[in-house]
């Protein structure tokens, strides 16, 4: 019995090392511009590491390059899940420099920003096709989710056979409509939250651990 016990303990230690040395799951945060992706990425990073990932802004396309926060360890219900968060630029079919002029931006800066935002969309698509293990798809729950971009991206995610969670953000706003998002993509679970206010983050972390652990 002693030999059998020693063998079982040895196997258990090997299995533990295999799982502890496994690469963190790389989770891409996707969605249209101004859905609150960076706000959510920063909320997760601050809650579990104390550090933010990048600046937040009400101006569209504030995130124009993918930003990554590695080894974010989330512990839920006695289980630890380690992920790398990739905050990606907002995906859209067209970036018009004129939309930045409404934010008191000089034309040269607006043109540069629109060019960088367009390059950011291409980078986000590259990450999606090549470099992520799962997706958190963030939508503004005050906006209509039935758009060409959302349908296209969800389709690409499904074609890649990636686990995906849909987060209906900005539930702190009066015109929030979470059910509209749930109805748009009934094949995926929709989790309501306010990344800005930190509302319902316990469920957010439970679902991240469940889907990506």
From TrEMBL:
Q: Which Gene3D superfamilies match?
A: P-loop containing nucleotide triphosphate hydrolases
This one is known as Era-like GTP-binding protein
Q: Which domain of life is it from?
A: Archaea
Domain G: from-to ranges: 26-170
Question: What is the scientific name of the source organism?
Answer: Halopelagius fulvigenes
Pfam families from the UniProt entry: MMR_HSR1
